[in-house]
User: Which sequence fits this backbone?
């Protein structure tokens, strides 16, 4: 047993378990890696933006140089697209790092965060890492009960997290409920609205005016390049808030956290409207197909506004393993206190059909 004076907040802290990689499953089950499909981590089945791939090629010869530490051009491009200033944007190594920035800035022993049951696992993980307490509000039909979350706020609360659409359930809160929460959260509480899947919505709630006007200095939005742009392997997320808030978060950001390849790829991906539209079309068709087929198998499906489905299959861990044996990687939900469920990411039509065929065999 180590006698190192470890941070007591780490005792009992769980390790985040991401979706299993293809090579690992191939080794474990003796399957050819090329024949395995991964529908576990809500990745883009069409792959990266072609423009992003081309842009990275142009940067390769300059990798001996440090990247732009402030990512000037990328921040300016993002800000311009939102009618904001670069000072309103903070970049992270994935949205997870943005959550960690918030943790460093606002969480410590004696403080609390408020989350919904079935929330993204990183919110409570970061809070506990910082020694903060986690107030978990029971879900309503697998989604956020925003009114109850507002009532759960105390003088010790420093952050409220709302993912919309929510991962891992795919649920969407109503426009009125979300706007009411934005208007009513006390000024000492930062409301973080995680919009990782917002690009899949046909009519999203636009919260940017609150930031443009400065009317809600305690509001931050989070977005990512991992989903709609297909750049999960590069790790790039960003936060949007008032200049004062972003300035605080910049104090805990590591230098050069966004490398040169990421900056080039992201800039190009923002201009690839065709890739975004094809992704949306593929996802829309895939959701319809997977929902219909699962219900035909008698499996309850939570209606999803994202690029994945939460499906009740009985013994989630068993079905997860049976699907792996058939070369289909999904995500078991036992870690989210939903042992009867698995989460399936939307793939290409061919991948979706193979997934349903494997699911039918696994259930039988």
Assistant:
């Amino acid at each position: 047993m180590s006698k190192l004076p470890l941070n007591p907040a780490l005792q009992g802290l769980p390790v985040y378990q991401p979706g299993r990689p293809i090579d690992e499953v191939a080794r474990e089950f003796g399957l050819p890696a090329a024949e395995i499909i991964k529908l576990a981590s809500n990745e883009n089945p069409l792959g990266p933006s072609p423009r992003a791939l081309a842009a990275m090629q142009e940067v390769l010869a300059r990798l001996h140089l440090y990247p732009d530490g402030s990512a000037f051009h990328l921040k300016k491009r993002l800000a311009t697209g939102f009618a904001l200033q670069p000072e309103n944007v903070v970049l992270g190594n994935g949205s997870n790092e943005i959550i960690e920035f918030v943790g460093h800035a606002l969480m410590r022993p004696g403080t609390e965060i408020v989350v919904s049951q079935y929330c993204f696992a990183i919110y409570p993980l970061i809070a506990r890492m910082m020694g903060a307490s986690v107030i978990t509000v029971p879900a309503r039909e697998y989604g956020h009960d925003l009114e109850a979350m507002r009532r759960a706020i105390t003088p010790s609360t420093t952050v409220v997290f709302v993912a919309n659409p929510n991962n891992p359930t795919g649920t969407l809160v109503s426009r009125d409920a979300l706007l009411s929460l934005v208007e009513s959260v006390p000024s000492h509480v930062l409301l973080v609205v995680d919009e990782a899947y917002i690009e899949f919505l046909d009519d999203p709630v636009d919260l940017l005016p609150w930031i443009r006007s400065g009317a809600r200095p305690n509001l931050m939005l989070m977005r990512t390049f991992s989903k709609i742009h297909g750049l999960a392997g590069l790790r790039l997320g960003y936060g949007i808030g008032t200049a004062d808030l972003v300035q605080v978060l910049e104090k805990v950001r590591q230098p050069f956290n966004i490398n040169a390849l990421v900056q080039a790829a992201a800039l190009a991906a923002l201009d690839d409207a065709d890739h975004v539209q094809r992704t949306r079309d593929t996802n829309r068709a895939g959701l319809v197909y997977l929902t219909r087929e699962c219900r035909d198998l008698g499996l309850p499906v939570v209606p999803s506004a994202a690029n994945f489905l939460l499906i009740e299959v009985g013994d989630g861990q068993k079905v997860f393993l049976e699907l792996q044996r058939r070369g289909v990687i999904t995500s078991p939900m036992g870690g989210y206190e939903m042992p009867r469920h698995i989460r399936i990411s939307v793939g290409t039509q061919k991948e979706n059909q193979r997934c349903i065929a494997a699911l039918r065999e696994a259930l039988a």
About this structure: Residues 273-296 form the longest helix (24 residues).
